[in-house]
Amino acid sequence: MICYPPGTLPAPDMSLYAAARAGAARTGAVLVPAREARCFRVPAGQFFRITCPEGPQVGDLNLWAAADLSERFYSGKTRALHGTHLTVGHRLWSSFPTLRPMATITADTLGWYGFDADGAGVHDVIGTRCDPYTNALLTGAQYHHHCHSNLIRALAAETGMGAAGAESHVHDVFNVFMCTGFTRDTHQYFTKASPVRAGDHVEFFAEIDLLGALSACPWGDCGTNSPASAACHPLLVEVFTPAPGVLDGWTPPAPNRYDQSHGL
User: Phi first, then psi: what are they for 225, rounded to 5°?
Assistant: First the structure.
């Protein structure tokens, strides 16, 4: 039994998004250096594209409502609603109590990949993010260029808050371009070298005003278990603004309608 049948979800208007994207102009860009993270902002009704401009590279994406960082991307609910890997037509959902679409995927040059013979797919909402705590647990070493720390530094730089404040807002990510699955024998999470190549991209329609942070993972294409041996490349985030009038009548999704009384 499918727990959340997709036919019952509010469907995105993909034809409207296509019409809006057709005449959109590039209005912003942020280059994320290899092994680092950067923040970017996208107003509701605009598009953002994440591109691998030079060589194979995966990225860890965090999203927040620009006006309220307590509303943030909810990878677990997104996974439950859409599946382990996302592509065109899937949406990135926000945390409770708002639980609404934050962004909708409108283009994906890796959509052809599907699931391979190992059961792996691209763009996952399975994993969390590489982090210094797990690294210290497993190796005893101090290493500050995990995606978790990268995202903290980026958010701190964007907002002016300290590391502790920024860390409280960093959350489980959307693993852009990452090729992952579960082993068939032990059902453990695995990665393999991403099929992404220079020029590949995934594109989103911003359903609400967004603050994003993207880390160019220090593990490169995630085909190795060692950042020291990983070839890393930058990622590019571009923002595109539709022509005036094309989205007339469209409004951002309202917060979830549950009354939060919880039976009390």
Answer: -95, 5
β-pair partners for 60: 175, 215
Separation of alpha carbons 196 and 122, rounded Å: 9
What the block records as the tokens of 157 is 């730089």
**How do residues 84-103 score in pLDDT, each as one tens digit?**
999 999 999 999 999 999 99
Question: To which residue do tokens 């859409």 refer?
Answer: 82
DSSP sequence for 49-118: EEE--SS---EEEEEEETTEEEEEB-HHHHHHHH-SB--TT-EEEBPTTT--EEEEEEEETTTT----TT
Cα–Cα distances (Å) from 61 to 127, 169, 238, 247, in that order, read: 12, 13, 14, 26
38-57 burial, b if ≥16 CB within 10 A, otherwise e?
A: bbbbbebbbbbbbbbeeebb
Which helix or strand (DSSP H or E) is residue 147 part of?
helix 147-159
The string over 198-219, giving b where at least 16 C-beta atoms fall within 10 Å of a residue's C-beta and e elsewhere, is: eebbbbbbbbbbbbbbbbbbbb
pLDDT over threshold 80, residue 11: yes
> Residue 143 has what pLDDT?
86
What would the 3-class secondary structure string for 23-42 be? CCEEEEEEEECCCCEEEEEE
Residue type at position 41: R
What is the Cα–Cα distance from 136 to 249, expressed in whole angstroms?
51
